[in-house]
Amino acid sequence: MRQAEFDGKGSQIRWTETAGAEPARVYVHGLGAASTVYNAHIAARPELAGRRTLFVDLPGHGISDRPADFGYTLEDHADALAAVLDAGRVTGAEFVAHSMGGAVAIVLAHRRPDLVARLVLAEANLDPYPPAVAGSSGIASYEEDDYVENGGHARVLDKVGASWAATMRLADPRALHRTATGLARGTKPTMRHMLRDLTADRVYLQGELSGELPGREGLEAAGVRVVTVPDAGHNIMFDNPDAFVAEVAGRA
Predict the structure, then answer these.
(1) 3-state secondary structure (DSSP) of residue 4
(2) CA 245/CA 252 separation, integer angstroms
(3) Quick one: the chain helix, strand, coil %, rounded to 5?
């Protein structure tokens, strides 16, 4: 396990890392998740062997610190992710990023293009106020104090199901709420516009069971490879790991 300060006040963002060849491959989880839980089985596949691999837990999640005075906006998370790469002396990395983590990776690529050579985005949030089919948990519908102190967190844990709740319980409720609120608010320009303007290699994976990706044609016109993954919903890495690995490996 490694760590880097991310807020100027001593708080640490942490990641686990396996040695291998450059360029590094960086896995970034979604809201209320943890990178190793969602991606260790993917990174262990022989098709992806031999690369330096980082599993990053964003602030407020997993093994990373959760300062109460941190903003947890998408930009804040992107800056914390940049601290990981700077501390690890990583440039030109490949990011495999899911849902909210995909939005963070897009913001990072927009702000620090030197750090990102390729994006593989699994149902990343591209627009403000994401619909339920894009992995929304309902967290942002609460006021912060209602979510943290008046039972909102417990109600959401009951709603999201056992698997997601298992990692959501590892996250700080206040960090979760601020992250969800920032995700709903989005960015200016939007994550979609940032993605369209990037020059890095970009792949967007949409689970077939999640329905058609809105604005697909515009993304493809901008050079984004959009792939509909059969027999998969929002958690593509669990629903169809073979297809997911093939896209990460670039062999599909």
Answers:
(1) strand
(2) 9
(3) 45, 20, 35
Contacts for 212 with CB less than 8 Å, ≥ 6 apart: 206
Kindly report the CA angle at 220 between 138 and 104, in degrees rounded to 5?
A: 40
Q: Is 219 left (phi over 0), alpha (psi -120 to 50) or beta?
A: alpha
- Identify whether the C-beta of residue 60 lies closer than 8 Å to the C-beta of residue 172: yes
- Cβ atoms of residues 120 and 102 within 8 Å: no
Nearest residue to 147 (alpha-carbon basis) of 128, 172, 166: 172
pLDDT tens for the chain, 252 residues long, are: 999 999 999 999 999 999 999 999 999 999 999 999 999 999 999 999 999 999 999 999 999 999 999 999 999 999 999 999 999 999 999 999 999 999 999 999 999 999 999 999 999 999 997 554 444 568 998 999 999 999 999 999 999 989 999 999 999 999 999 999 999 999 999 999 999 999 999 999 999 999 999 999 999 999 999 999 999 999 999 999 999 999 999 964
Q: Both tokens of residue 155?
A: 């109600």
Q: How far apart are CA 161 and CA 150, in angstroms?
A: 20
Give which of 88, 123, 87, 150 is closest to 235, Cα–Cα. 123
Report d(CA 85, CA 116) in Å as an integer.
10
Sheet of 51-57, strands arranged across: 2-5, 12-18, 51-57, 21-28, 93-98, 116-122, 201-207, 225-229
